[in-house]
Amino acid sequence: MADYDPRITELYDTDNPDGPDHDYYRALAAETQAERILDLGCGTGLLTVTLVGERRTVVGVDPSPVMLSYARRRPEAGRVTWIDGDSSAIEGGPFDLMVMTGNVAQHIPGQQWERTLKQLREAARPGTVLAFESRNPSTRAWEKWDAEESTTRQTPFGPLTEWFDADESSPGVVRLMSYAKFEQSQEVVVEKLELAFRSAEQISRDLSAAGFEVRAIWGDWTREPFNGEQPLMIFEAEAAKGKTGETAHG
């Protein structure tokens, strides 16, 4: 896909601030006593740099050069290994903890998703924890996005008007068009995404096929068990013994 507009990237942390989700992942890093952490789809690195600690190695991987350029300018960025690419570019394993935050899992379509999970398993050792979140398809979040009116806000780049078009282009696949109009120049930045909305059952099967065992599915960042109705599903899985896929065949 085309890379992000640098102005949109500059606004990313304001739109997606540090909060309960980051607290959850930091707590998980402490609980697992992780010494080597992978943040796949690290974006601007807002969470990534806070995972750095004494005797802890952190690797951030993202396919967006613009996002990584921003991440590398952060305080403490020099203590993170930044890699431009997707799961096929992962280096520095095996890891003790691997995370995909900001609903990154939904940005990985079809067979790429299966490949990503297998490559994550290859970067793990038995017992390594993989954690990520994904929206619950049954709550149909995209219908709310599509129904929202445009909004205008002040930014360092002047007034910015934003709106969305969203529809389910095929079962479990949502086409999202994001529009950002910089009012001073009348320039409209358009971002086209296809988001995968997978059920808890499907994700659990995919994890098992890749060599992971699901140990919990939470419905919120306070670790309330997922009951099928919450808008978010937070997965914790462990890499099973043996090589990728062995657990699926005995």
Automatic annotation (TrEMBL):
The keyword Coiled coil does not apply. GO terms for molecular function: methyltransferase activity. SUPFAM superfamilies: S-adenosyl-L-methionine-dependent methyltransferases. GO terms for biological process: methylation. The keyword Methyltransferase applies. Residues 1-10, 141-151 have a biased composition (Basic and acidic residues). Keywords: Methyltransferase, Transferase. Signal peptide: none annotated. It holds the Pfam family Methyltransf_25. Residues 1-20, 141-161 are annotated as: Disordered. InterPro entries: Methyltransf_25, SAM-dependent_MTases_sf. Residues 37-127 form the Methyltransferase domain. It comes from the Bacteria. This is Methyltransferase. It comes from Glutamicibacter nicotianae (Arthrobacter nicotianae). The lineage of its organism: Bacteria, Bacillati, Actinomycetota, Actinomycetes, Micrococcales.
